[in-house]
Amino acid sequence: MMGRSSWVRVAFSLAIIAGITGVCSRLSGINATTAGFAYLLGILLIAAAWELMEALVASAAAMICFSFFFLPPIGHFAISDPQNWVALFAFIATALVASHLSDRARRQTLEAKSRQQETERLYELSRAILLTGTAGPIGFQVAQNLARIFDCGSVALYDPGTDQVFYGGQQIPPHIEAKLREAVGGGTNPPSFDAKELVVVVTSGGQPLGSLALVGITLSEGALQALLRLVAIALERVRTQQAEMRAEAARQSEEFKSTLLDAIAHEFKTPLTSIKAASTSVLTDIPDLAPQVFELTSIIDEEASRLNLLLSDAVSMAQIDASKIQLERRAVTVSEFVDRVLEDFRPRLDGRSLRVDLRNGLPRVSADPDLASMALRQVIDNGLKYSSPATELEVAAEARLNSVTIRVRDRGPGIPEGELERIFDRFYRRPAVKENVRGSGMGLYIAREIARAHGGDLWAESVPGSGSEFCLTLPTQDPSVRS
Fold first, then answer.
1. What are the φ and ψ backbone dihedral angles of 209, each rounded to 5 degrees?
2. Are 473 and 456 in contact (CB under 8 A)?
3. For labelling alongside 217, which of 196, 233, 253, 310 has CA 20 to 30 A away?
4. Which burial class, exposed, middle or buried, applies to 140 when counting CB atoms under 10 A from its CB (0-12, 13-18, 19+)?
C-alpha cells in the first residue's frame, strides 16, 4: 500500500513527463526521435532519484504522450502501432535498469554508512572498556556503555563465574535472564543476526565466558562478532578484577595475621624472658642445688629457650607467608649454622642416632643466617616427626657449582611419588599420617619459600619403605673462601 509520500512522488513524476511533453511540443524542429530521448532522460532521472514505482508510472505516461503527440497519426493514440510498443518497452527497460542501479547504489551507500557507524561505535566501546575504572562492577559499566553507545533499548550481560546479570538501558524483558543462563549451558541456539532480540554466547578460546542479550538493535554479522570479542575482553577484566579483589583480601588477611601473631609473640616473650632469666639465675647463682631441683630447673631453662625460638620462628613464618621476606645476607659458614640448629634438636632425638657429615672445604653460603636456620629446622623437624624412634637421622652437606646442598635423610616410611611435590603445598598433610602426626602443613612450604628467596631450592627424594631425603640448596658467597 502506497503512502502519502509515494503518491506525491508519483504526481511529481507525471508532472515531469507533462513538462517534457509541453517543452517538446512547443519547440519547432523537434522530431519523434528527439522527443523519445527526452522522455528516456526524464525516466532515467526519475528512476535514479526515486523508486521503481515512480519510474514505471512515468514510463506509461511517457509512452502515451509520445504516441499521442509525436507519432503519426498526431493527435491520436494507436496502441496497436509497433512503434508504441517499442517505445513502451524502451521506457520500461530504462526504468527497470536505472531503478535497479540506483537502488543498489543507494543500498551500498546506506550499508557503507551503517558499517562506518558500527565501526565508530565499536571503537568507542573498546575505549570505554579499556578506560573502565574499578569504582563499580566492570560488568555493569560495560552493559551501561553498550546500551548508550549502540543506542540499544536493553542490554543484559551474564557472568556465570559469579552468577550475576548486569543490566544496561531500559528494563530487560523478564524471560531474557533465563535465556542467558540457557545459552551458556548450550540449551538454546543464538537467533539470526537480524533479530530484534539477540541472545548470544560470549566465548574466548572456544570456552564460554558468559552470554549477552541485546533488545531493540540490529547488527551485521561482522559487527556482532567484533562486539562479542570486546565483551569477552570485558568479562576477562571482570574475572581479573575479582581475582585481584580476592588476592588483596587474602594479602590483607595475611598481613593482619602476621601483625596479630607478632603482637602475641611479643606478649609471650615478656614472661618467657623472665622465666629464662630466673631459671638461668637459679642454675648459676645458687650452689649446691638438690639434684631433683637442678634437673627440674634445667628443664625449665631449656624449654623456655625452645619456646622463645618457636615464637620467633612463628612470627617469621607468618611474615614469609604474607610475602614479606626480607633477607639480611652475609657470608655464613655452613658448619656453624648447621651445628647450631642440630644443637637445638639433640634433646628431642628420642633415642635416634644422629650422624653428621659436613665435608671439609665447604664454601661459605650467601644467606640470612636466621632464615636459613629456620628452613633447616623445618626440614629436620619434619624428619623427626615422620621417622620412628631408634632409627638414624643423617645430615650431610656437599659443594656444588655455585651452591651448597644440605641433605637431611630419615628412615621413616617414605613418601609416595605422587606426593613428592604436594608435600610442599600450603596446609597439605599426607592423608596416611595426618591423623597420627601433629602439624599445620606449613613447615616445608615455608622452608622452600626461604630457600627460593635466597636463590636456592628445596626438594624431596624418597623410596616408600626406605625413608626420605630432603635437599636444601643455598648459593655460595665466594668459592675461593673455604670454611
1. -100, -25
2. yes
3. 233
4. middle
Task: Report yes or no on whether pTM surpasses 0.85.
Answer: no
The DSSP string of 50-84 is S-HHHHHHHHHHHHHHHHHHTSSSTT---TTSHHH
Q: Which amino acid is at 361?
A: G
Q: Which fold has domain 330-475?
A: Heat Shock Protein 90 (3.30.565)
Query: Look-up: residue for cell 543464538?
Result: 190
- Taking CA atoms, 26 is separated from 30, 65, 68, 430, 467, in Å, by 9, 14, 15, 111, 121
User: Per the CATH hierarchy, to which homologous superfamily does domain 134-247 belong?
Assistant: GAF domain (3.30.450.40)
With a cut of 50, which residues of the chain have pLDDT below it? 187-189, 191-194, 479-483
End-to-end C-alpha distance for the chain, whole angstroms:
105
366 grid coordinates: 650467601
Residue boundaries of the structural domains of the chain: 4-110, 134-247, 248-321, 330-475
Q: Per-residue pLDDT tens for 278-294?
A: 888 887 878 777 888 88
Q: Which residue in the block uniquely carries the three cell numbers 531493540?
A: 216
What's the gap between Cα 436 and its chain centre? 41
